Amino acid sequence: MRIVLMGAPGSGKGTQSQRLVERFGIPQISTGDLLRSAVARGTEFGVRAKAAMDAGHLVVDEIVLGIFRERLAERDTERGFILDGFPRNFAQAGALTTLLTGIGKPLDAVVLFEVDYAEIVKRISGRRSCQKCGRVFNIHTAPAGTAPHCDVCDDKPLLVQRADDEEATVRRRLEVYEQQTRPLADYYAAQGLLRTIDANASVDEVTRRLITLLESLPAQRPLRNAS
Ligand code: AMP
Q1: pLDDT tens digits for range 85-125
Q2: How many whole angstroms separate alpha carbon 61 and alpha carbon 161?
């Protein structure tokens, strides 16, 4: 299964991707995670991407496409993948279509997460992540006693708030989403790939809706090179 999860920052794409990884055994490819890792490692891409990320702007396509291509070339993507936070503009969407068509592995669906603005602001303000394993938690929904420590890692490291989850930066990221990313819904609708879910619900309920939707997709489109 090859899918894109699309939605505003804080719409739950990352959290739901983690659950789909467990359910379907295919990897999540989050360009945000890849970029944060490049920044943390101080790679050339990371150094160039940092200022845009800190300001809540999109990182230039050349860098994003570079790290995305590298990740897609890894073997674990052969059975499928969940794209989280990519593509984010028309240039990236076009490049993705060309790339996947070229290897005979088109997308099966693009799922748009619809969430009210007030709910997004609440979710982002409560979002915390583990710097060690990358898991995302939310202090508003975590069972009492689990936050602010990671309950997945053995040594229970303290959870931290992402620098770009600060309020002014969040506002900028929402604007960028509305202007550059959300219009991609029409692009994918025209290709018959768009599915929409109401994501104004608990994490478990959204997972249930998402799995129902994905399991009801038509059988996957045949691979061009399949014999
Ligand atoms: P995310 O974790 O997906 O919210 O991404 C965090 C930040 O990384 C974004 O605000 C952008 O600065 C950058 N970023 C992530 N994915 C992309 C992308 N596909 N294109 C451009 N910038 C991106």
Answers
A1: 999 999 999 999 999 999 999 999 999 999 998 888 888 88
A2: 26
